[in-house]
Amino acid sequence: MDKKYHELNIMLNDDFVEFIADFVANIAGDGVEIGHEKIIVRSESDLTFVKDALVSLEGTLGGSIQMSYTLEEKENQDWIQKYQDSIEPIEAGKFYIFPSWYEPKVGLINIKIDPALAFGSGHHATTFSCLTAISEYVKSGDSVIDVGCGSGILGLAAKKLGANIELCDTDPISVESCKENFALNEEHYDKLWEGSIDKAEGTYDVVIANIIADVLRFIAKDLKAACKEDGLLILSGILDKKEALVKDTYSDLTLISRTLKDEWVTLVYKKELRNNIG
Hints:
- The protein is α/β, with parallel strands linked by helices.
- The chain has helices spanning 17-28, 48-60, 79-86, 125-137, 153-160, 172-184, 213-218, 220-226, 243-249; strands spanning 4-12, 32-35, 38-43, 67-75, 90-92, 95-98, 109-112, 143-147, 164-169, 191-194, 204-210, 227-239, 254-261, 264-270.
- The longest helix is centred in the first third of the chain and has 13 residues, at 48-60.
């Protein structure tokens, strides 16, 4: 029996399409299609709550991202299968990120993520660059925290390298998604909570925060405080036009790496002891 499905079209500036698509995938839990200045979300459930969440996000970001919407009910097609067929695995640093309908790859560290069901599948430029940075800088035995963990993909990557991992996200749906993906990969975290870095109880060798530039600036003091002396901060989610503002906020640290991919910047800082003397 044919069923109807719901389709939400989101029109916005092309610079923000991938960022908003990740946000939508996080809360919608269904297939998200990316186009030129457009995102399409399809679900068997009503998508009004996704539109409402985006309107709220627009307000939170002070109008820096403007979107328009159409929400329709349509005749059912096998859009889930079409979406799955469009998703291919990727290699990022030491990692092979693949959906469950593919096989793992020999010679790389395998992480299974179903992008139709969770935020952060490695395809977004910021996630890709963070995975590359984690490949280079995270060592076995390191204590690591992933702030704004989303699907948990970055925490999973650190765990696969032998790190001790804690994770947090202000979105309860992300927390549940993170739990599911750790279970899917048969891995364990040390702590996971709903909230931000200010609830962390310890300090860490590596602090990872793939959020957005304005939030990185807002919580900079807490991120720095959570990082051990001579520890590292991996910061991403930074549009190139916001890079200077983030660099200014973290100018007391030593920048050791910068990656630009598709207009998104990832910065790796070292919290050197000399930065806190005098």
